[in-house]
Specification:
The protein has 178 residues and is of the alpha/beta class. Helices cover 29% and strands 22% of the residues. The chain has a single domain (6-177), classed as Alpha-Beta Complex (Spore Coat Polysaccharide Biosynthesis Protein SpsA, Chain A).
Length: 178
């Protein structure tokens, strides 16, 4: 049986107050975190969308789709990505998770009911279009915690090697990965 088509959504992030500069433009070895995540999504997805705040005016090597929300929260990016996706299943990768592999994204997509997350969740994740109405409602209500939204969905959790989930919040954390 053929695998379903996938849309990959890169959450570009924004202000990066703890990091001190936009994380998307920070470098790990020979590429920016944004370039690395875009490449990872490209290895497994038929379509890729980068979502963030156009007002941040980040110089990225690909088009950025504005999330259309006045809040800064991953939920806004997930909703915008699901709305725009051509595929029924969307894998979501935050720009600050540089060790996530294509295999991990594929495992999330394969496990997806309404949603699939790792055992540590909430991101990276996979979502079906069936999750959109719940996520839109929570965004409208300003109930922005993605991990709480997962409780309202048929969410599957998968076990993965936790080293793949390293999250970069400071320049020191990025240096340790490099």
């Amino acid at each position: 049986m053929a695998r379903p088509r996938l849309t990959g959504v890169l959450l570009v992030g924004g202000a990066s107050s703890r990091f001190g500069s936009p994380k998307a433009l920070a470098r790990l070895r020979d590429e920016t975190l944004a370039e690395r995540a875009w490449r990872t999504l490209g290895a497994v997805c038929d379509e890729r969308l980068a979502v963030g705040k156009a007002a941040d005016a980040l110089e990225l090597p690909f088009e950025l789709r504005d999330d259309g929300s006045d809040v800064r929260a991953p939920l806004a990016g997930v909703v915008a990505g699901l709305r725009a996706a051509a595929s029924d299943i969307v894998v979501v990768l935050p720009v600050d998770a540089p060790l996530v592999t294509p295999e991990l994204l594929r495992a999330l997509a394969d496990a997806c009911a309404d949603a699939a997350v790792t055992h540590t969740g909430p991101l990276p994740a996979a979502f079906r279009k069936t999750a959109l109405s719940t996520l839109e409602r929570r965004l409208d209500e300003r109930r922005l915690a993605l991990h709480e939204a997962l409780a309202e969905l048929d969410t599957r959790r998968i076990e993965v090697d936790e080293t793949l989930l390293a999250n970069v919040n400071t320049p020191d954390e990025l240096r340790r990965l490099g």
